[in-house]
Amino acid sequence: MSGIATGAGVLRLEEEPPDEQIHGSTRERDNATERRTERAAQTLANPALGLAKISLTFGGVAALRDVDLEVAQGEIRAVIGPNGAGKSSLLNIVSGLYRPTRGQVQFGEHSFDQVPTARLAAHGVARTFQNLALFKGLSVLDNVQMGLAHRMRAGFLRQIMGAPLARRIEEENRTAAKEVIGFLHLDDVHDRFAGTLPYGVQKRVELARALVARPKLLLLDEPFAGVTFAEKQELSQHVRNARDSLGATIVLIEHDIGVVMGLSDRVAVLDYGRKIADGTPDQVRADPAVIDAYLGVAHEDATELAV
Amino acid sequence: MFDYQFLIEVLIGGLLSGVMYSLVAIGFVLIYKTSGVLNFAQGAMLLFAALTFVSLVERGTPFAAALAATLAIMIVLGIAVERTVLRPLVNQPPITLFMATLGLSYVIEGAAQLLWGTQVHGLDIGISDTPFDVAGVLISRLDLFAAAVAGGLVALFALFFRYTRTGLSFRAVADDQFAALAVGLRLPRVWGAVWAVAGIVALVGGLSWGARLGVQFSLSLVVLKALPVLVLGGFDSIAGAIVGGLLVGAIEKLAEVYVGPFFGGGIEVWAAYVVALGFLLIRPSGLFGQKLVERV
Amino acid sequence: MALLASTKTNRPTAETLWIGIGIVVAYGVVPLAGSDYLLDAVLTPFLVLALAAVGLNVLTGYAGQVSLGSAAFLAVGAYAAYNLHLRVPGLPLLVDVVLAGGIAAAIGIVFGLPSLRLRGFYLAVSTLAAQFFVQWALTKFGWFSNDNPSGVIDAPVLRIGSVSFATAAERYVFSLTIVVVLTLLTLRLLRSQSGRNFIAVRDHEIAAKVIGVPLLRTKLLAFGISSFLIGVAGVLWAFAYLRTVEPAGFNLDRSFQILFIIIIGGLASLRGSFIGAAFIVVFPLLLSRIGAAVLGRVFDSGVLEMSQHIVIGALIIVFLIAEPRGLIALWDRAWSALRPARRPAIPT
């Protein structure tokens, strides 16, 4: 890790190669359009995330039915769908909070019936939550540093006594947290209690907490819900940066179809627990099944979707 | 030779005292179901009711008048508690509400004893405590009476919930607060009514327990007996409160008689807790409680 | 002090200064100037209850796990130290104290195990099991009290090497030292990653789990540390304060008293634990003086106890409604109002 981030941390970080070597990451930085087509055609042997035939039932009610999803390394992948389509359930399965009734989840070469949530961070996966899940009683800096909690290998006695190992890890984590805070322009509020900040800022803090561990796979649960237009712009820039400069593969769940179209490489659409479409934003936008799902059956004016 | 008749006697004794636990537990469930508050002060309310009634009778008030007056006082107390303590704490985390009722129990206990004194009162509700004999098994009349009262109370609640407007609104609120709010139910009014009903339940429980133990401070400790009942039965189920009460009653007595001697006795105080705890680990929402899926 | 000075925090050094002044006054002035009554009936119980409250605050205020069984761990500490002293002759007193805390911690961890599956008042109810079980065991098994028929134990004279702590002032100094050292260590723990993990588990357990906070270890650590501190407080309660204790003294009311200290003083605040303890100790004394002055003979001990219950209970409710952060929040507000110039500008 080079240099201590200050206000200029953003620039530094963008030039820095990602912690984890994502294969082909330099090549993939070329042209956005080209990349999209390329990815859509790709079927990778080792996807960043793979879901195979995922089904989930809650007491007889099917929330998800045979959902397959493949996410390529380094792509921004959106999963959209109306309320109750099963998007959040999907993300909760990926993060191990739910156990799918059937199906498997794959990270890289690891495959799971139920993802072990406690080992999620160790597998390089981070997520945010639809309804903010910050630690209200901690400062912004501490919240962000919490994203590295799993790196503290020194026991509590060594932490109390300030043993060299504990202090070194503490220093490293604090430095990393400060860097990400600079990256997301949160310096001004770093010592405020997270619970006292405006909603949009809290969303950014949550993103920072997820990014601080430099995840290989970042799951975003409705990152744009409830934020202003300007904040949406800013947030999508941050999401793009997270991929471009930190090398994260990103899966984002969204209710609002508009925002994600410009941001994502590929989009999957869920409706009533089934995947009804999957492809580039353009393909999905033109898909009649998607238009039905969003606007009711057989709507003539498809242009409304082309936001 | 194992003494089955003795076993049955112990079991029946346990089940009957279990009914008494249920009487207390029902008061908890009513409030928990409709407002999500675990009312630790239920025991104090029970003490307050019994103490008020006994003191009125001792001061020469006729039985019926004392009963009516206590009833009125308990209803007012219930509503006042809802107004002054719970309403300002709406939307607070459940554990905050719980701690508030802990404070409330101190207030009510203190007030009851400050008003009526701390001495022990006998309470005679006209039932002799001599056991009678059913096929060689001894059964306490008082326990049987309490069981009948509890049964009647539950039947009354069942009718009330099914056939009255207030009962219906209780159920609606318990089912879905937001939906109830959306169809125009006034939540504070419903909550006030629930607390009033809890006051009435406290009176019934207070008289039954008072007749058994005498009316004194330790009455408020029956709340501690009701907690494992709730854990077993689930905090939000009246059926659970009954079944849980019976179970706890039976477990306590059986444990005391058959397991207790190995430990020098007195395990009644914690046996129910240990069983409830073990049970919780297997089924965290109790026998009849709603299983909650964690939403994130 | 080296410990505190090396903590890397962004708190102003003024705090360290105040702690320093406090320590000087507590050691240099109080033992000389205070009467035996003040030391014995006010200051020592204040210190012991404050330590117990610090312990409960770690568990309930910081880690968010409500416990109604604190008195059980006070009792475990007291009886463990008594038995260690009795049955392992030659063990230095401080080792006794630490081991007794360790035994309380071990029992605390056992009763904390359900916390992995239980939340909120389900957990609170389960901690009652500890309360009743411990009290029962100490009464029932004569071994714990060296076969005293009612479980009463008499504390030995406190002695470290050739120094004994027998007088009120000496016992006060002994308690003060242990309380200060343990509080400072607790402060350091709370400002470490483990301390942040506590708050994370309290504020959002699922998010904490997703991030990779080891839930079971964090919760059990909270139970262990908390019970350790309360256990040591129990040793002081028995050895330095009352010197004769019985299991009945560690009843549910004692547990509630400690809980009330942290609610009134301030949840998740170590300073709050001290203010709350001071309040709980001083308030009954004040109430009895005032009551006697105003009402005269009517205000007997029964009336005192009941009105104490009423006022404490009412205060709990009032604080929960009006100032959930407790006395310490009032204190801080009053403090910053007194010197408005130093108040930091609110960042945007």
Automatic annotation (TrEMBL), chain B:
It is found in: Cell membrane. It is a multi-pass membrane protein. GO terms for molecular function: transmembrane transporter activity. GO terms for biological process: amino acid transport. The keyword Cell wall biogenesis/degradation does not apply. Keywords: Amino-acid transport, Cell membrane, Membrane, Transmembrane, Transmembrane helix, Transport. Pfam families: BPD_transp_2. Its main location: membrane. InterPro entries: ABC_transp_permease, BCAA_transport_permease. Belongs to the binding-protein-dependent transport system permease family. LivHM subfamily. This is Branched-chain amino acid ABC transporter permease. It comes from Bradyrhizobium cytisi.
TrEMBL record, chain C:
It is found in: Cell membrane. GO terms for molecular function: branched-chain amino acid transmembrane transporter activity. InterPro entries: ABC_transp_permease, LivM-like. Pfam families: BPD_transp_2. It is a multi-pass membrane protein. GO terms for cellular component: plasma membrane. The chain crosses the membrane at residues 12-30, 42-59, 66-85, 91-113, 120-138, 172-190, 220-242, 254-270, 277-298, 310-331. Keywords: Cell membrane, Membrane, Transmembrane, Transmembrane helix. Its main location: membrane. PANTHER family: ABC TRANSPORTER PERMEASE PROTEIN, HIGH-AFFINITY BRANCHED-CHAIN AMINO ACID TRANSPORT SYSTEM PERMEASE. This is Branched-chain amino acid ABC transporter permease. It comes from Bradyrhizobium cytisi.
